[in-house]
Amino acid sequence: MTQRDDPTDGMSRTGQFVLLASVLASSMAFVDQTALGVVLPSLRDDLQASVTDTQWVVEAYLLTLSAFVLVGGAAGDIYGRRRIFAIGIWVFAAASLACSLAHDAPTLIAARAIQGLGAAMMVPGSLALIAANFPPMKRGAAIGIWSAASGVAVIVGPFLGGLAVEFLSWRWVFLVNLPIAAVALLLVRLRVPESRSPGTAKLDWAGALLAVVGLAAVTFALLEAPRLGWSSVAVWGPGIAGIAALAGFIAQEATARQPMLPLGLFRSAAFTGVQAYTFCFLFAVHGSLFFLPFNYIDVQGFSPFEAGLAMLAVPSLMVLLSRWSGRYADRVGHRLPMIWGACLMTAGFLLFLIPGVDANFWTTFLPASLVLGAGFGFAVAPLTAAALDTVSADLAGLASAVSNMVARVAGLVAIAIMGLILTAGFNTTLDSGLDNLALEPSARSAVLADADRLGGARPPGNLGAAERTAVVVLVKHAFVDGFRAVVIVAALLAALAGLIALFVLPRPAARNDRPSAPPE
């Protein structure tokens, strides 16, 4: 590469260090998030956890990240971007250490919630530092490098997760963050200048607290319903309280002088359509891909390393196609590639109906993953740009932050609801299969007692060899039936996203539905 082709050419030394610190910090979060999916089955077995516990390991992180990401960005503007960014790295690193030392599920879940709080300061802070330290003519190149590094992190995450479990331990997925955080903090301390925006609006703490309480209570109800039952006051009580808190959040945002989520943005039908597309699109992706590693490891018999390699197909194709799709969207508008992306994703999810127990990866899972990855790659760059294109330039930063929050909430809700769907399908097949096996009542009870581990459920040791084999096969078929129910719902949501793009989003020549002043 010649100096003229170097994307960092012309950047100041300070800018280069700012960019490096931003890339290191955000890459920790992206690698951590994508690597965790592959290690969840091993983590579940090591901590003797249920699938609900593993859902909480992911949900706790998404919960605090979703609720506080807007607050984290605003705090940097008020108290100093460098300071809040550094605090975020410290919190994320300390929580990573706590995650690696956890010896039971509740401790790990609590540490993950703190890790999400650190990410809520760290991830928006990385882009804010780039925006503050690069002039407009060079900012695009810097963000391009940041985005490319994020794409690489997304790709290598599953590979590193599988590698860690196969040869070390799932704990190394968290421990690897510590040296990266140390380097990032050193750069921040020595080379990153402070910046802030005088007169920035105050933090909306009331809105943030209502959001976290509402999301936490509703998530708790959804995750615990399969175990406790919908009739339990421990389920419907938090569910009702969560809905009330979320209603209070909407009321707070509608009346606050300086809201965390300005509802005026949603007066634009185009902006609302983009957010609805984002929610459906990422609900389908997160809700289905969360359970795919369990399918690979528990049902198909893959090792964690093999599962990590298998999971590379979707993010790799997404990253490879997203740059091309962005240029394509520049020519034809965002709407058309978003429609095609949703169509491809619908087809990809439906192809996941084909693999059964002991399926051939190359002829079943791989084609489905490639089609799904192509759809994801086709839509993700135009979707990101569309969120900004539906508002005026003075609201672009706010629109981006709202889109980020919608994406996080979609993942949070998706894992809980898709878990309900998979559990219902699993239990239906398991119950009918156990009826056919006609096991002793004590043996049947033992199998059902372990059913909250889904595909990881194991037959009791007092069964004969033939009965043990029959139970293992039944559990695998039950998981496949549950997973098929999940991908059917995902396909319907992807199709709904396509319809939203078709009928709600404006055509390239009709983009006048933009709020041009800050919403009240």
Automatic annotation (TrEMBL):
It is a multi-pass membrane protein. CDD domains: MFS_MMR_MDR_like. One of its GO terms (cellular component) is plasma membrane. The keyword Transmembrane applies. GO terms for molecular function: transmembrane transporter activity. Keywords: Cell membrane, Membrane, Transmembrane, Transmembrane helix, Transport. The chain crosses the membrane at residues 61-79, 84-103, 109-131, 143-164, 170-191, 203-223, 229-251, 263-285, 305-324, 336-354, 366-388, 409-430, 483-505. Residues 18-509 form the Major facilitator superfamily (MFS) profile domain. Its main location: membrane. InterPro entries: EmrB-like, MFS, MFS_dom, MFS_trans_sf. NCBIfam families: efflux_EmrB (TIGR00711). This is Multidrug resistance protein stp. It comes from Oceanibacterium hippocampi. The lineage of its organism: Bacteria, Pseudomonadati, Pseudomonadota, Alphaproteobacteria, Sneathiellales.
